[in-house]
Amino acid sequence: MRRRDLLRMIGATAGGAAMYQAMSSLGLATESPFRGTPTLHGAPRGASVLVLGAGIAGMVAAYELRQAGYQVQVLEYNRRPGGRNWSLRGGDSFTELGGFTQHCRFDDGLYLNPGPWRLPYHHRGILSYCKKLGVALEPFVQVNYNAYLHSADAFGGKPQRYREIHADYRGHVAELLAKSTQQGQLDQSVSKEDQERLLESLRQWGALDKRFVYTRGEASSNRRGYDRDAGGGLTAKPLPSTPLQLKDVLGSRLWQHLVDSEIYEFQTTLFQPVGGMGRIGEAFGRELKGVIRYGAKVTAILQDERGVSVTYEDADIPGATQTASAQWCVCTIPLSILGQLPLNVSPAMADAIAAVPYAASVKVGLQFKRRFWEEDEQIYGGMTYTDLPIANISYPSTGFHGGKGVLLGAYMWGKDAYEFTAMAPEERVRKAVEYGSRIHPQYREEFENGIAVGWHRSPFTLGCFAAWSDDMRERHYDNLCRLDGRIVLAGEHASYLPAWQEGAVTSALDAIERLHRRATGGIV
Amino acid sequence: MRRRDLLRMIGATAGGAAMYQAMSSLGLATESPFRGTPTLHGAPRGASVLVLGAGIAGMVAAYELRQAGYQVQVLEYNRRPGGRNWSLRGGDSFTELGGFTQHCRFDDGLYLNPGPWRLPYHHRGILSYCKKLGVALEPFVQVNYNAYLHSADAFGGKPQRYREIHADYRGHVAELLAKSTQQGQLDQSVSKEDQERLLESLRQWGALDKRFVYTRGEASSNRRGYDRDAGGGLTAKPLPSTPLQLKDVLGSRLWQHLVDSEIYEFQTTLFQPVGGMGRIGEAFGRELKGVIRYGAKVTAILQDERGVSVTYEDADIPGATQTASAQWCVCTIPLSILGQLPLNVSPAMADAIAAVPYAASVKVGLQFKRRFWEEDEQIYGGMTYTDLPIANISYPSTGFHGGKGVLLGAYMWGKDAYEFTAMAPEERVRKAVEYGSRIHPQYREEFENGIAVGWHRSPFTLGCFAAWSDDMRERHYDNLCRLDGRIVLAGEHASYLPAWQEGAVTSALDAIERLHRRATGGIV
Q1: Alpha-carbon gap, residue B472 to B275, rounded angstroms
Q2: What are the backbone dihedrals phi and psi of residue B364, each rounded to the nearest 5 degrees, phi first?
Q3: Which of A130, A404, A421, A430 is buried most, with the most CB atoms less than 10 Å from its CB?
Q4: Which residues on chain B are in Cβ contact (under 8 Å) with A239?
Q5: Which of residues 265-294 of B touch A (CB under 8 A)?
Q6: What sign for the dihedral angle of Cα A491, A496, A501, A506?
Q7: Surface of B (9-68) touching A: CB under 8 A
Q8: What is the distance between the alpha carbons of residues B361 and B371, in angstroms, rounded to a whole number?
Q9: Chain A partners of B125 at a C-beta cutoff of 8 Å?
Q10: Inter-chain CB proximity B232 and A258 less than 8 Å
Q11: A224 by DSSP, 3-state: which?
């Protein structure tokens, strides 16, 4: 019996769920650490959990533990749910360490996601909560063949269209390998039959001509674009374009940006919540109304054999110290902050907390009077890459053909991010406009207002995300994640998916399953 | 002065439009046959135009000629505007040649676009009308790394994820070329310096390891996916997957499908109108309310020195023949039908009309009880390719995580399309379900209803689109497009963009500009 006959039979007799089980066992389904919505139940009578932080990890933990019957309370520093899941919209304010307060002046419907902004199709945990909580999703355009690759030192500083570098690099690679094949240089490693197939495939894949050359003509222009597009009537014969030479493509180093959209986390289909990433946090916040105490700054976490006691300052009652207690604690406070708090955990966990540095990152959102990238340059969504300090310009994946628009005008890491974080916010915005205008000269005329978040000055994270190295992970990761007495940590920092919300979700689910097992007397 | 300084100066002093002019002349803007909304004005007093067909070409012509001051009437065979721009929704009926009538039973909000379904970013004409008429656009997901490539004869008939074939083909190509480079086989054609750059780029681009080998590990899995995805907590270390061997990838011929999304017309960003492609035709129909006479079947077109006279049958008054007249005629009737009508044009145009065959195509829409492709297989939008007769399965790019869904269950060309067209519609649907279930076994359980359009049985087109060959174009294209007395043809068939709505738009604009020049006494 063939595999598909078997599957058909299973489907016909036992239904879709059984079929899916069978598909999994036959290797048609990918294995995911997200094993579906947890089915925790039977919390011990009166069992209570204190969750620290109302970011994604904290709210997933609180949501599921409540479902399982635990008494749950969440303490959150900010005045809103979500943590790094956050959209800045017109009317919002943000005060960073150092005292700068920015007031967002975006028009209605426009936003910047200072933190996460993309959801990959395989991040099944966070996607399942979007579904469960009714957060509508729309495609996020990552790669745009008509956006630019730019280097200040290549092609006289003139931005190249992604499609040109993409097609030309591939075309030249295909031509070189076709040549090697035809010259018999692959005879040792590839059978004659496969060489024939390889040549045929390279011609198609690389847009080579009949002689296996990548050159000006219909084949290459049908990838890289035309000097004049095809149209209708008597004046519309297309005009082919001329490929760049291999040495110019290689020398430009613009090929560095060709892999971005191939990476597992950036492959299509990517999503964004309609209205901003913050919609997820807001939806969790609604579910946990009354459970989350906002404006609560945790100052110490202490546990003993019977429970966990947390002291915090209520932003509405300055100076006074409050206490919250529970039998268990799920702590999602970023390590950068947690490491500075009194906390009685094992030396191994304390070492782990202290070991992991936080990455620097800056995002700048810029509002423009008109969507010139669409109107003038036919760029709808996607990203431009540049070696200027702004690194990226990302165009909105929604609201096409609307009036005003907000660009992600800089998305920076490393050294440049530190430099920008050190500037006053308005200076970051000014610089982003200045650099961006070298790619889009329309910036000067069309810019209206901007907002800039430097994550190392964010009082609720002191950095962007836990920057694990392989060595650190080897030494500290398991110690960080292990249930320590009555405390378990969760968050992107307690995952193999740093910086991703999916890390927060899967980490929280893993943590509460172990906590639940221990709370119900099982072995962890 | 550097290019960008010049541009900056122009922008600062003369504004965005001048800047764009300058960008064009510096080669930063692509040339398009769409030169913006036409600015025809000054129609001669009382000048009139009869437009045949209320598809995109006819409606663009009518819309613009009215703006220019012409008296315009449109005759349309169907009871709706749009022609091939068309969405079938629940409650719609469609009767094809041969007498079969199908009643669409899709749930609210679901649809099939039997004709065009995608809008490329560089189709500036049709996009500009979407903007002008307020037709909202959303991204159309063409390539989906998690959809399947399938061959009945490869990998035991088991569908492969796009990301696997995509990454493995590229990885092996990169490894082979890296080897050739390292063995000095490129010394004749590539400088030493460029060979170094090439190696560096191949490693990154092809996901090779440190020894330039494409093999199981973090690099390759970060493209092709993992056996077990990364997650959070203590049980979530990712497990790398094992690449396919080169010979298996080549032998499967699945590499044929890797170029589809690279082709100029299928590159990101692609769009679809929110609610179905038919929204464009419907919007034009609203603009031309009172101008279009529906249910009018043209039976003859005759011109003399003073004008054009068209006879037609009104579907509401069977048997009676009506006449409509005007000074000029823009005829957008497909050549497959036009060639069968009495029409007094030059022999050259008549030959052209007779010369071009129409392509066969079939689309099948299938409604399912649940979106199992999303729930079970994490496929959101995009397409699966197969060598089964159905050729493609396309997943909706919108309504993610909703309840029911409509798949494009077959999108066929050539021989298979002829065979399916010959079947009764319900048989086409049955076959599409049967073939599709070899890729998605859930079909059997979840299928609800379907609808199938075979374009050669469409009474208003008798085929899908004008299938020009290079030879035909050489001999006939200009003769087809030339103004013939008082008649000019327009439509995708009179363009270098057959089958695309942009061909219809640019063809119509080109045609009416020439018509207007002649009508106002200019030279054509």
Answers
A1: 37
A2: -125, 130
A3: A421
A4: 31
A5: 267-269, 271
A6: negative
A7: 10-12, 15-16, 19-20, 23, 26-34
A8: 26
A9: 231
A10: no
A11: helix
Domain spanning B48-82+279-355+468-519: which superfamily? FAD/NAD(P)-binding domain (3.50.50.60)
Q: Are A482 and A121 in contact (CB under 8 A)?
A: no
Report the sign of the C-alpha dihedral through residues B218, B222, B226, B231, in that order: positive
Name the residue facing A401 among B30, B122, B131 (closest C-beta): B131
First to last CA, chain B: 43
User: Given an 8 Å threshold on Cβ–Cβ distance, is A122 in contact with B263?
Assistant: no
User: Which A positions 339-368 lie with beta carbon below 8 A of chain B?
Assistant: none
By the CB < 8 Å criterion, does B6 face chain A? no
Domain boundaries B88-146+268-276+359-457, CATH class? alpha beta
pLDDT digits (tens, 9 = 90+) for A103-151: 999 999 999 999 999 999 999 999 999 999 999 999 999 999 999 999 9
CB contact under 8 A, B378 and A30: yes
Asked whether B449 and B364 are in contact (CB, 8 A), the reply is no
Nearest to A144 among B125, B268, B442 (CB): B268
Q: pLDDT tens digits, residue range A139-189?
A: 999 999 999 999 999 999 999 999 999 999 999 999 999 999 999 999 999
Structural domain boundaries in chain A? 1-31, 48-82+279-355+469-519, 88-146+268-273+359-457, 162-252
Residue B340 has which token pair?
Answer: 């069968």
Put simply, the answer to whether B250 touches A194 (Cβ < 8 Å) is yes
Residues A407, A379: Cα–Cα separation, whole Å? 12
Q: Do B179 and A189 touch (CB under 8 A)?
A: yes
Helix ranges restricted to H, B288-407: 335-338, 347-355, 372-375
| Rounded Cα–Cα distance for residues B506 and A203 (Å) | 32
Rounded distance between C-alpha atoms, residue B322 and residue B314, angstroms: 7
Sign of the dihedral through C-alpha A354, A356, A357, A361: negative
> Are residues B233 and A263, on separate chains, in Cβ contact within 8 Å?
no
Measured between alpha carbons, how far is B312 from A448 in angstroms, rounded to an integer? Answer: 57
A461 in contact with B at a CB cutoff of 8 Å?
no
CATH, range B161-252 = 1.20.1440.240
Yes or no, beta carbons of B183 and A186 under 8 Å apart: no
Q: What architecture does CATH give domain A162-252?
A: Up-down Bundle (1.20)
Each residue's pLDDT expressed in tens, for chain B with a length of 524 residues = 455 455 555 555 555 444 444 554 444 455 677 777 777 889 999 999 999 999 999 999 999 999 999 999 999 999 999 999 999 999 999 999 999 999 999 999 999 999 999 999 999 999 999 999 999 999 999 999 999 999 999 999 999 999 999 999 999 999 999 999 999 999 999 999 999 999 999 999 999 999 999 999 999 999 999 999 999 999 889 999 999 999 999 999 999 999 999 999 999 999 999 999 999 999 999 999 999 999 999 999 999 999 999 999 999 998 889 999 999 999 999 999 999 999 999 999 999 999 999 999 999 999 999 999 999 999 999 999 999 999 999 999 999 999 999 999 999 999 999 999 999 999 999 999 999 999 999 999 999 999 999 999 999 999 999 999 999 999 999 999 999 999 999 999 999 999 999 999 999 999 999 999 999 987 76
Q: Is the separation of the CB atoms in A276 and A118 below 8 Å? A: no
Q: Cβ of B232 and A505 within 8 Å?
A: yes
Contact B4 A438 (CB under 8 A): yes
Q: Are A409 and A452 in contact (CB under 8 A)?
A: no
Give which of A267, A370, A474, A489 to mutate to test B binding, by max B Cβ within 10 Å: A267
State how far the alpha carbon of B215 is from the alpha carbons of A431, B148, B202, in Å: 43, 22, 14
pTM, full prediction: 0.94
